[in-house]
Amino acid sequence: MERFHFLKLRAMSPSVRLQEMIRVIRGARTQGEERGVIQRECAAIRAQFRQVDNGTRSHNLAKLLYVHMLGYPAHFGQMECVRLIASPRYNEKRVGYLGAMMLLDEKQDASLLITNSIKNDLSHNSQYVQSLALCTLACMGSAEMCRDLAPEIDRLLRASNSYIKKKATLCAVHIVRKVPELGELFTPAARSLLSEKNHGVLHGAVVLITELCERNPDTLEQFRKVVPDLVQIMKSLVMSGYSPEHNVAGISDPFLQVRILRLLRILGRNNDTASDAMNDLLAQVATNTDSSKTAGSAVLYETVLTVMDIKSESGLRVLAVNILGRFLLNNDRNIRYISMTSLQKIVQTDHNAVQRHRGTIVDCLKDQDASVKRRALELSLALVSAVNIRSLMKELLLFLSSCPPELRAHTTSGIFNAAERYSPSQRWHIDTILHVLTTAGGDVRDETVPNLIQLITTASELHCYTVHKLYRALITDISVQSLVQVACWCIGEYGDLLLRGECEETEPVQVTEDDVLDALETVLQSHMSSPATRGFALTATMKLSTRITHNVDRIRSIVSIYGSCIDVELQQRAVEYNALFKKYDHMRAAVLERMPVIDKSSPGHANDESAGGAIKELEQTKLTQEVVLPKEPGNQVCDLLDLLGGSGEPVSSSALSNILPGTARSTSGGDLLDLLGGLDVSPAPPSVKVYEKNGVTLQLQTDSQTDTGMTITLTATNSTDGDITSLTLQAAVPKCVQLQMKAPSGDVIPARGIGLVTQTVLLNNPNKVSLKMRVRVCYTSQGSVCQDTVQIDSFPSPAW
User: Superkingdom of this entry's organism (predicted)?
Assistant: First the structure.
């Protein structure tokens, strides 16, 4: 049987019919067998193309088009398409035009050879030949062909045949897209087409007018005069009875209705007169259209977009929001998704109207579809206000406990922003953040720890409550690093309140000194603790030496152990603390005094700064209580008074009391007691603002500069109420300049300026040409992708 099948393939005639060739190709058992059949057939087709017309040219080209559809090369049939288009026979002309649309495009020279044939066929006495030429021009017409044949298309737009006018209208749309300046040629004819009764012609006319208005402001003003005509057409569609020819799921020609609504949206934008003319119509469409079917939902969705985009009445906008609210109850997930996307865009302008559907939106957080769940989360965060913060936050915290891992970081960030903005009390604020840290502490951002510490320091009446609550959390679970860091910091600062055991805000628990030290030592020895967490625990242990009375020797022993730690940061910290025990024990109480209140609005303080930034901010704080430290002999290597750059002025004991871990500090010579190492007193490099739009600001500063090179830093900040995501920066320079972009610090800019994203760019200019750079900024804001390009012609000088 296999041998018979193979012989049948070999014996297949070169002039086999198309159906037979398709059957044989489909019957091929392997890909190699299929290639063999196609190669033999293509060779036979090539040979017949070289022969004189034998009546099979159209059949051969049809077979070649099928081969092209299978993905095999068929470019050798392009000239045959040109010959068949010029044929007087309709069956050959039809296959030739089909081949031209499939095998030719505007980039190939062969396409120019059919321009004259198309022009002749546009004047043919047969409407079917004319339609072939119109379809081909609309499909693959180049700019040159459009310019040559535009007058012919304008003539056919005024023809009496509706079939031809429909084809000519769509062809005119292609010409306007290819050559926008030809739009003025079609404006008069397009306006007259609105009086047509044929829905196909009307549909094409509306599409053509839409293209003309989008490309020319002057044309837009002209067509605003036809708004009453469009309104009348739309009313006739909405109020007309059943029409079998145009009815789709009970809606009369929903395709034409959607196109008219889109055109009305363009005409009514930023225009009071046009908006007033269509307000009644939009209300009529919104109330009379059935949303139970997809066709009706499509018309209603376009109606909502039109209402929100024009200068509509407030009652109409509420009606549009209610329609989107009904969409949220639809079983189709796609409809729910587009409903929430639209609500997110209008929640800032119509907050109260969207607020009425809060319950339905929150229910969408339980949807199984990840896209719907993400949109519901973003919309729920946008609906948070001072009135509903408590009830809505309960739902968000419940969602956080079960949300997918990819949404946790976004959820925690949104909860933190909402709590900071609308918290009813400081205790509620602290409880909410601690609940988030307990639930999803591994997914919070780095700035969460300093933010929470700043909040705790300002709530002086809650210090006892907070340290008790954090101690319970610490002895329960030490796997959440951010929670452990805050707990260690609080125990170090307010350990005396914890040991006192008296707290009005919570149930008192008797805690001994050994219990607290055991908890901190567990953190220090745990394999789950990061180096930064161990730094917090070691500092907390050291601070407890001034807050307890019976276990100072144990603390000294714990600190001395880490003097030989493999981690350099932890080792340096332990050596400095040991020196404080031995040489400066009389100053230990003053140096380890409780932290002052951190003023978040102070210069130099940023939520995403490291602990070194927090220390710099503290150093600038003016305190009334000062301690004059005695000066050591002049030959002493480690001079404690030199920590702040002066040896004779009073030094604030509070400014020295807190040593936050995670600070990048330098060790040089004998500065083992450089407790505030990392202070940067050099002037900040000057920066220039190169971009500011949609709340996103991009600053450029020159870090260093040589004769042939430059290092610059791009810094992006966000002043909006929502996070900016998917931030990417792309740069282009002249060819003779070499560019290298380092990895950015992140792709999410936190809301309201509480964080920033930086990216370093290295420029090498060996030819010393004039430096210019073009930067493309791309980001996602409130679900919309924004992309802009900025030109930088001058760069600031670096700091000296």
Answer: Eukaryota
